[in-house]
Specification:
26% strand, two-stranded antiparallel ribbon, 2 domains, 11 strands, alpha/beta
Length: 325
């Protein structure tokens, strides 16, 4: 099995109809529903170098009861097409995972109402065209397989890299919610695709990660992570403040470059003014400040030799400005 997929269509028995009709406004008969079974997720390492532990699969089995099936994780109402009415966690005694554990997977039963609208989809499911699936869920803990640290709080190990002969992956633990499951073209898990959202989007503002934490995460980012809406808005506001600060800094640097160029001319450095202005424009602020200080010292040493100095007049920067060119 290479992807999360629909196993087969099944006949709705009385027990199935009883569970299905918990979600309907009127009782449906076996002739009025189409039912099928599907593998949602498992304990194998997926394409993102992540896996669910068996405890997580058992928790997800409860969370996925009643969850709707859509297309490509697009949460629009018109994309709702099926609903899960039963789940179970199963063990394949004849199959081992890449970690030599018993292959364990979450299997679900889903139903959709037979109608002209669903006829083509039902045909595509039976024909094996619509087959791959993926799930959307959140977990509260992501453990590093190398050091067992919480990867959400920071870990020096990177998923997919090999440490002392062992490839690092993340273990998804303590599921907090199951959002939906989708028909997709390419799922993330090799045996049961999963789109994982690690952060609950409805967290209180008091639990939001601050800007410094997010910026640090960006600087060492080696994987995808999710921002809440509130975090994204706060980060955008912070970026706008930084942009204003950068504009002020740029204006200050330009003024400083002009001043250094002027002092260079007054210090009679015998440098072409246009050439020096071009060089000054490429200096950073610390370099410009150093040149400015050096030129001011050099000019102060000219005090006894400057032309046009009055007999009793003290030569200062203010008086020198009288002869500005």
């Amino acid at each position: 099995m290479n992807t999360g997929y629909i196993i087969k269509s099944i006949t709705a028995l009385d027990d199935d109809l009883g569970k299905i009709n918990r979600y309907t406004r009127r009782n449906l008969s076996a002739d009025g529903v189409y039912t099928f079974s599907v593998i949602l997720c498992d304990n194998e390492i997926d394409r993102d170098y992540e896996r669910f532990c068996v405890d997580s699969l058992n928790s997800l089995a409860k969370l996925f009861i009643g969850k709707t099936g859509i297309f490509d994780h697009n949460p629009k109402g018109q994309n709702q097409t099926a609903r899960i009415y039963d789940t179970e966690v199963l063990v394949d005694k004849l199959k081992r995972t890449s970690l030599n554990e018993e292959y364990t997977y979450l299997k679900a039963k889903a139903y959709m109402v037979k109608s002209d609208k669903n006829a083509d989809l039902i045909l595509e499911i039976d024909g094996g065209i619509k087959k791959e699936v993926s799930v959307g869920c959140s977990v509260s803990s992501i453990k590093c397989s190398v050091c067992a640290a919480d990867a959400k709080k920071g870990c020096k190990h990177q998923k997919g890299k090999v440490y002392e002969g062992t490839q690092c992956h993340h273990i998804l633990e303590k599921p907090t919610d199951a959002y939906e499951w989708s028909f997709v073209a390419v799922p993330a898990q090799k045996n049961a695709g999963v789109t994982k959202s690690y952060e609950n989007q409805d967290k209180e503002d008091s639990k939001l990660r601050d800007n410094d934490t997010l910026i640090k995460a960006f600087s060492v980012c080696d994987e995808e992570f999710t921002l809440t809406k509130a975090e994204a808005m706060a980060l955008c506001s912070h970026i706008k403040c930084l942009e204003k600060t950068a504009e002020l800094g740029f204006a200050y640097k330009q003024d400083l470059a002009k001043e250094v160029t002027r002092l260079s001319f007054l210090a009679n450095d015998q440098l072409d003014t246009a050439v020096f202005a071009s060089v000054a424009s490429k200096m950073d602020i610390e370099e410009l400040k150093a040149f400015k200080s050096a030129y001011e010292k050099k000019l102060s040493s000219f005090e006894d030799n400057v032309q046009l100095k009055g007999k009793d007049k003290t030569f200062t920067q203010a008086t020198m400005n009288e002869f500005k060119i």
